[in-house]
Design goal:
This protein has 3 helices and 11 strands, in the order αββββββαββββαβ. By secondary structure, it is an alpha+beta fold. Helix 1 crosses helix 2.
């Protein structure tokens, strides 16, 4: 139980309830992430030339010069730059009937606020001719700041999330190559 010294009983109760609410939202966020990650574990891929193909999930994505495939638990595909400072992961999830890309994006955005990850910017774009959203987020993990550029697109009921993460101070240098991943993404079915 958390202790709040020097606060009145009403303030202590309010603070405890706020902490419980925060913990509930945080647990829901991590539960959703766990569902996304386990859903994305199915299906293997192959590399042909400078492209990664995952025929099980019906997509391919270009791999920039020097980047290597990286096995990341929960990701359908993962890549790491030569300096091992930047990572790109593709997570795939089949959504329930009636859930749109916009609803999915809104749910992710609401959970981001609950997890104390800060959204810096977001917008709309096209990926392989399909509607897509992007967002830039900043987070601190074990005292280290990271910045991520995330892309979300959808075909049928399947959402493809491209998560590009790097040390916050190297983000400007990585932004163009992150965009090249999204720009090279193709639906293969």
């Amino acid at each position: 139980m958390l202790k709040y010294y020097g606060l009145s009983n009403d303030l202590k109760t309010k603070k405890i309830l706020e902490d419980r609410d925060f913990m509930k939202r945080t647990l829901v966020f991590f539960f959703l992430i766990a569902l996304i990650l386990t859903e994305g574990c199915r299906g293997g891929g192959t590399i042909e030339g400078n492209r990664y193909y995952n025929r099980s999930w019906g997509f391919s994505i270009g791999i920039p010069e020097g980047w290597k495939e990286s096995n990341v638990s929960g990701a359908v595909a993962g890549f790491i730059n030569p300096e091992k400072t930047a990572r790109v992961n593709v997570i795939v999830q089949t959504l329930p009937e009636g859930v749109t890309l916009e609803k999915y994006r809104d749910k992710v955005s609401s959970q981001v606020g609950a997890s104390r990850v800060r959204k810096v910017n977001d917008g709309k774009m096209l990926i392989d001719g399909a509607a897509a959203y992007w967002s830039i987020m900043v987070m601190t993990v074990e005292g280290k700041r990271f910045k991520s550029l995330n892309y979300y697109t959808m075909k049928g009921r399947t959402v493809y999330t491209i998560i590009c993460t790097v040390d916050a101070d190297k983000f400007v240098d990585s932004e163009d190559v992150f965009y090249s991943f999204a720009e090279s993404f193709r639906f293969e079915q």
